[in-house]
Structures are given as C-alpha cells and as structure tokens.
Amino acid sequence: MIGGATAAVVALPLSLAFGIASGAGAVAGLYGAIFGGLVAAVFGGCGVQITGPTGAMIGVLVGIVSRYGVGGMFLAGALAGLLQVVFGLLRLGGFVKYLPQPVIAGFTNGVAILFFMTALDDALATLSLTLLTVVVIILALRFFKRVPESLFGLATGLVANELFIHSPHVVGDLPFHFPRLVLETMPFGQLGALLGPAFTICLLGSISALLSAEVTDGMLGVQHDSNRELIGQGLGNLVSSLIGGLPVSGAVARSGVNVHSGGRTRLSSILHAVFLLLMVLVFAPLVKRIPLASLAAILMIASVRTAAWKSVRLIPRARWQYGAIMTVTTILTVVKDLTIAVAVGVALAGSGVLIELAFSPRGQVVGTSKATATVSSLPAEIQVLAFEGPLFFAGVEQMRRRIRALAQKPGLVLDFSAVTMMDETGALALGDFVQRLQAEGKRVYLAGLQRKPLRMLIRMGVVDRLGRRRVCKHLDSAVRRAVQELGKEV
C-alpha cells in the first residue's frame, strides 16, 4: 500500500505536466496514468511496474499532435497498443534479454537524468521547500526507516508551505471527469499515415517498459514475464487511447519509487492507479495545495536512487568499451530518444564482439553451445553441466535457459573449460544467475575457467560475490569441493 501510494503521489504531477506538454491537456495525462496504468498492472508481467505517461514519449506525441491533431495521437496510441499485444502473443518480449548490460545501465542513467531535469524548474521555483523536503527525506532514510520517506517529506513540505513559506507554486485545481470513448475524434481516413508514428510509439514504449522491468528485476532478484508485460502494456495503451488518454509505458523512475517504498507485488501497481484516482476525486482540496517543489524533491531523490551507480563503479575495472557504450547510450537517451540510444548501443557492443572474435585465435559463434548431461561417476546429489564457446551478451539468455532446463540436483558444477572468452555482460549475468540459484537452495560451483574468463569474473567482482570457494580453476577441484560440502550437509 505504501509503495502504491508513494508512486501515485509522484505520478500525479508528472501526469498533469506530460498531458499539458503533449498538447492533449492535463486530463489526458490523468486518464493515461489511472486507467492505462490500472489495465497494464492487472494484465502485465512485472508486478511492481508503474505505468503511465513518460517524458521519453512526449517528443514523439508533440509531433503527432501538431500534424494529425489530438485525435490522431489517440488513434496512433490505439494502433501502438494493438501492435504490442501482437508482439506479446508472438513471444517477442524476450528481445530485451539480449541487450548488453552497459546499454541497460546507460538507458537507466539517461532516464534518471531526464527525470531529474524534469523536476529542476519546480525545484528552483521554491528552493527553500525543495531543500527542506530533501533534508527530511534523507533524515527519514537514516533515522526513521519504518516511515515511508517520500510521504514523510511530502507531508513536511505541505505543512511548512501552509504555515510559513506560502509558495504559490502548488498542484492547483484538477479538471477531472469520468471518461468516455473518443472514437469520433479519431481520423480513420489517415490510418495508413499513422502506422509509422504508431510503430514508433510501440517500439519506444515496449523498450522502455521491458528495460524498466529488467531494472526492477535487478532490485528485487526476481524474473518478470516479458511477453505478458508486452500484452499488458498494449492493453493499457489501447484502453487509455480509446478514452482520450495519453499513450503510456512502464517507467523506471516511478517503478523505482514503488520498489524503494516497499512495493513487492502486483497489488502495489494496482493500488497506484486506485490511489491516484482517489487523490483526484476525494482528496482534491488537499492535493491541490501540495507544493510542486516538494514533489520535485521526491522525484529528484528517486532519480538519484534509480541511477545505475553499481554499473558506473564498475567502469574503472571493466574494459574501456564498457564505459564507452554506457556513456554513449546515456547521452543519446538524454539528447535524442530511447530507440536511437538502444540501437546505437547494441551496434557498438556487437561491433566490439565481432572485432574481438576476429582477432581471437579460436573465433567461434557467439553464445553458449552444447551443454552436456551429468557425469555418471559422480554422487547422485551432484550434476555437471559443460559449456563451450565465448560467453558474450547475446548468449546469456541461452545459458540461463539451458541451466534451468537441465539442472535437476542440489549440487551443480558449471564447467567452463571450453569457454574461451567472456564479456562484462556475460560475467555479471552469470554472477546474478548463480546467486539466484543459490538463493533457491542449490550449491553452485564454477569450474575450469580459462585465464581470460577468470580475469573478467575477478574484475567484475563476481568471484568476491560468489565466494572464492565456489569458483575453481580446475574441474576436478570443483567436483571434490562439491562432494565434500554436500557430504557434510547430508
């Protein structure tokens, strides 16, 4: 409940602002956040995803409205929703799992910067309130951990403004009424011309939502259903557009607020929409007095906490390509758009892989190849899976699937004797996946690591995270260690 309520508080001013900025009006932003967000929450595949209008989409929507009118934007949004549903039914949602880690980190940092910049004007308009709210939130994080820090800061800002500061920069009146279908405003005669803009909305919204889901997966150590998430996002866009709302997408910043405030299940994202509706209908007299500076402070802190700081700290330890790809993706996300940023980032990462394979003495096909079954002479509790070929970002998902499909025993030895190379994405994904398996009760050992993959695992901190006893240079050492430790447990 706290996660949903806090996300709703953050979503309210954003929905109003994005609706106005698009040219469709504040109510269109509210419709998208409430009704589009609710449908996406119910039918989506990521329980903590908060869906609503996003800043990354506004540039596209402004162009559509200026050329085809508000009705054209509604029609393009509905078509985009249908495309997303089709893509989900065709099981195309998993494409984001093949993105390199520095591209995901760059996207996350770029979105964090965009949302920080979105809040800057309101923050500077009443700087005293902004600083007060920031200080209160930081103190709540430090000394009152059981208190929802964002709501604590918001309440303090509201009281301070009413009693002492009296800033006129508040949310203001909410012109809201229950929606109705807007089919009569849609220019169906321009359907062919709107297919291109609809595809852009579809692609931008899908990448944004699926990357946001990947980020929240990393926060919680869970795995979302990407195909179901695409279907949920598509249905959310369809419903929102048909009733006059903005096209919507899952958002990293708001989903991060939900997670940081305690949201862990689908109930939090559903309650986000419910609380947002209640704020508009029931608490409008109080909501309209909320200072925009306090909301800006909440958003700025959420943006800072959402940024991929862990990935940034890895730059000095990783190869120069890692930092370069992350930086380029971040910059393009801010100055261009998400689609271009991801496309360029993936192209740079793919070029790096091809160059490395070309100059490798044992160039092989990218990804993991055959995984063998257990060694017959081992105890019944232990299983060995062998992998072959370089482990780059494109092979990470295949590795996960093979391990999930074949790993049936409590003791698991992953034999990487024939893995010649490993990039940062492969190393980090391997470490995260092994930790998940261990959290499920499995004993996992990495064995047979050649010099380059072992060095990459050490540089990325994976060896320290898993424990040096779990990472062995030779296969027989890992098997002996597994036998000894499992034997003691038995």
Task: Offer a quick outline of the entry.
This protein is mainly α and 490 residues long. 66% of the residues lie in helices and 5% in strands.
Describe the structure.
The protein is mainly α and 490 residues long. It has three domains: 305 residues, no CATH class; 42 residues; 108 residues, Transcription Regulator spoIIAA (2-Layer Sandwich). It is built from 20 helices and five strands. The protein has a three-stranded parallel β-sheet with strand order 3-4-5, with helices on both faces. A two-stranded antiparallel ribbon has the order 1-2. Helix 6 packs antiparallel against helix 12. The relative contact order is 0.15.
Helix and strand string, N-terminal first?
HHEHHHHHHEHHHHHHHEHEHEHHH
Low-confidence stretches: 363-376
- C-alpha geometry: globular
Backbone structural class: mainly alpha
Q: In angstroms, what is the radius of gyration?
A: 24 Å
Q: How do the strands of the widest beta sheet line up side by side?
A: 3-4-5
- Let me know the average pLDDT: 87
Can you count the helices?
Answer: 20
Helical content stands at 55-70%
End-to-end Cα distance, whole Å, is 43 Å
Number of domains: 3
Main sheet: strands, sense, barrel? 3 strands, parallel
Number of strands: 5
Beta-strand content: under 5%
Reconstruct the topology from this structure.
Elements: H1 2-22, H2 26-43, E1 51-52, H3 55-89, H4 101-125, H5 127-143, H6 149-165, H7 191-220, H8 226-242, E2 249-250, H9 252-260, H10 266-281, H11 284-287, H12 292-306, H13 309-314, H14 320-335, H15 338-358, E3 382-388, H16 396-406, E4 411-418, H17 424-439, E5 443-447, H18 451-459, H19 462-466, H20 475-489
Parallel strand pairs: 3-4, 4-5
Antiparallel strand pairs: 1-2
Helix pairs in contact: 1-2, 1-9, 1-10, 2-8, 2-10, 3-7, 3-8, 4-12, 4-14, 4-15, 5-6, 5-12, 6-12, 7-8, 7-9, 9-12, 14-15
